[in-house]
Amino acid sequence: MTTFFQDVRFAIRTLVKQPGFTLVALLTLALGIGANTAIFSIIDAVVLRPLPYHDPDRVVMMWSHWTNWTKTWVSEPELADYRAQATSLEHVSAFDTTSFNLTGAGDAVRVAAARVQAPMFDALGVQPIAGRVFTGQEDQPGHEHVAMLSEGLWRSQFGSDPSIVGRDIQLDAVPHTVVGILPASLRIPLDYARRTYWRRSVMRAPPSARSTRSLESPRWRRWTACWRIRRRIAG
User: Fold this and answer.
1) What range does the domain containing 76 cover?
2) pLDDT at 204 over 60
């Protein structure tokens, strides 16, 4: 041990006498550690850590190829064709992302959101921690004003109050009934921002003066498609 401490003192004296060399060595060491940490973080998130879905190897994303576009969203008619003709698929669904002003829980806040078709939760194998997920009926006109909150939003804005399920909140000044609470682990596929809640929507064009195009048109593409491969095919 005596020799070890002598070597340490000698090394320290040498480094102090050569500050330029010491600075370069420390910077090189710091850059090396930082680069390796960043690389490992990416590998851990993308490769090592499992996706937060049930049987993630069966979850599929689908994009369209269109004129001058090698990768674009899908239209409602395309989704209908997949549901009717693709026998290897189940729980064909889609979503798009947006944001809303949330009121009715203290000060108004702008929250991220996703408009989600009902089969999405079966496609991802997601179960709520309270309440329920959306139903097929809520994909129909007149039944779409329902919402689900993320666990984080539920805790931060509503104080983890379980009675929020079944009550109304205001999204862009429109009442929506909260039907369930989503687990904190949930991620929307290919969307790196964690969604604060998922809102139901009808498959209809939004009432916007800037556009009169209908969602039924195959040229009106807004959906990111997601579904699950049937087990007998995946196996």
Assistant:
1) 56-234
2) no
